[in-house]
Give the backbone structure.
Amino acid sequence: MEKPITSMAILAFPMMAMTNILPFMLLIDELFSDMTLVLKIFVLLTIISYVTQHLGKGPLSLMIIAVLSYFIIFDYFMIFGGIYVLYMLVLFGVTQLLMDFFILAPQAAMEQNMAGGDVENQPNGQDMKERQKRLMDMRRRTRMV
Amino acid sequence: MNEKGNFILIAIVLMVVLVFMLPALMYIFPPIDIIVKIMLIFVIFSTVKGYLGNGVLTLIISGILIYFLVIKWWWIGATGWFAITLATFGIFSILTWGSKTVMDLTKPRP
């Protein structure tokens, strides 16, 4: 006999989902806002350092810092925040990593294609040893060694 | 998935595992937690000092950053610092090269 679906049962699943997901969503929201603040502080430090490096410490540099900070941190942060993150990634050598991928990944694909994708056809340490032995024998026969 | 995608995925997974080992170790062993947090405080303070020099502003900004990156979101701070350190020393390149050449994880197993 089928049990009647009550309104409590219908509400149970969304309520359970809400009680489980909501704290996680709140955590993500808090994390995102805090990390945005941290990123803005680092951008501000970069602006201050850049301007004082060029103009020294004076009223003009303070004015320029204020103007740049207004545009970069408050007005167009969605653009400049991304640019700053990209700049930092490049600075810490992520491009090197991409180059490694671009060099090694096609090599891996090529090796597998050459071997026909079969593990038995791929050379291993034993093959190399036998090849070396054959080479040495050949050299010995031709009195090269 | 083709070989190229497989290799890149394996390398990225290895990197993520390596980077998240530090917060895991910090969680398991409290002495490591304290040591890494002290190192993070030094790194943050010296970074801000490098930008602003000695002054009250340096102390304030360092305090804010230390609160967020060492106390509140310590695992993000530790992970980020560890990732930056590894990237600076080129460990990720070694890992990428090693996962292809030494470990040969892309080779199909019988």
Remarks:
- Residues 77 and 128 of chain A are 57 Å apart (CA to CA).
- Chain A touches chain B at residues 31, 34-35, 37-38, 41, 45-46, 48-49, 92-94, 96-97, 100-101, 104-109, 112, 117-120, 122 (CB under 8 Å).
- The radius of gyration of chain A is 32 Å.
- DSSP finds five helices and no strands in chain A.
